[in-house]
Amino acid sequence: MNNPTIFVALIAGVLSFLSPCVFPLIPAYVSHLTGSFVQGNKINVEKKLLMIRSISFILGFSVVFVAMGASASFIGQFFAGNRELVEKLSGLLIIIFGLQMAGVLTLRFLMFEKKLFNTETSKKGNVSSFLLGLAFGSGWTPCVGLALSSILLLAGTSETLYSGMLLLFIYSVGLGIPFLAISVMLTYSLGILKKINRWLPLLSMINGWILVAMGLLLFIGQLQKISAWLAQFTSFSY
């Protein structure tokens, strides 16, 4: 696994969380996970309960994403004999997804949302939180879908099955850590949402152009060269 793809996967996860169609819904997710409610200017919930339910939720969507990474890598290995063609097609698609996210393109067929699980449940618990995470992972909103699809395409060009799974695990970490942090902050004040909301369009555009750059490097075959160059700074001599 090379440094650029790991970095992009992590950043894509963080910026996916901060996308305009995910971040504003965090209070609703927290309330649904814990059965809590907004009281004054904060969410009234026990922090220990919030942490446990949030971690269960994160594990749920991580399982789905890592499984997707394994599937993408398997398909990529199947077409290993045509790796150059696969990389060019993947790079082209990532560029299109990035331009869509940056607002340069507005392709309607890329604005989709799929739901495989019923997220409405009257009984709150760790299992239901995990299932809600599965639902989120299986029915991501359009903004997350573009970033996630790009990371899956990168996973499809990875050299091994485990590299693809690791890439999606890193993406899940990038998505999960800020979710956990913001969830805890909401128990103190909802004001953090208003402050971050101002920057969401800019963050979405940044995410888009990062994907465009990665897709271009993959398309012209320079991604591996950059990885080899970076490797000299992270290798250790014994």
Gist?
By secondary structure, the protein is an all-alpha fold. The protein has helices at 3-17, 26-34, 47-78, 83-102, 126-138, 142-156, 161-186, 191-197, 200-219, 223-234; strands spanning 37-39, 42-44.
Element layout with pairings:
Elements: H1 3-17, H2 26-34, E1 37-39, E2 42-44, H3 47-78, H4 83-102, H5 126-138, H6 142-156, H7 161-186, H8 191-197, H9 200-219, H10 223-234
Antiparallel strand pairs: 1-2
Helix pairs in contact: 1-6, 1-7, 1-9, 3-5, 3-6, 3-7, 4-6, 4-9, 6-7
What tags apply to this protein structure?
2 strands; mainly alpha; single chain; globular; two-stranded antiparallel sheet; disordered C terminus; 71% helix; 238 residues
Low-confidence stretches: 113-123, 233-238
Summarize model confidence as the mean pLDDT.
Answer: 77
Silhouette:
globular
Secondary structure: number of strands? 2
Helical content stands at: over 70%
Specify the number of helices.
10
**Strand arrangement in the largest pleated sheet:** 1-2
Radius of gyration: 19 Å
In angstroms, what separates the terminal alpha carbons? 21 Å
- Based on secondary structure, the structural category is mainly alpha
- Report on the biggest sheet: 2 strands, antiparallel
Strand content: under 5%
Reading the helices and strands in chain order gives: HHEEHHHHHHHH
Question: What do these coordinates show?
Answer:
The chain has 238 residues and is an all-alpha fold. 71% of the residues lie in helices and 3% in strands. The protein contains ten helices and two strands, in the order H-H-E-E-H-H-H-H-H-H-H-H. The chain has a two-stranded antiparallel ribbon. Helix 4 packs antiparallel against helix 9. The C terminus is likely disordered.
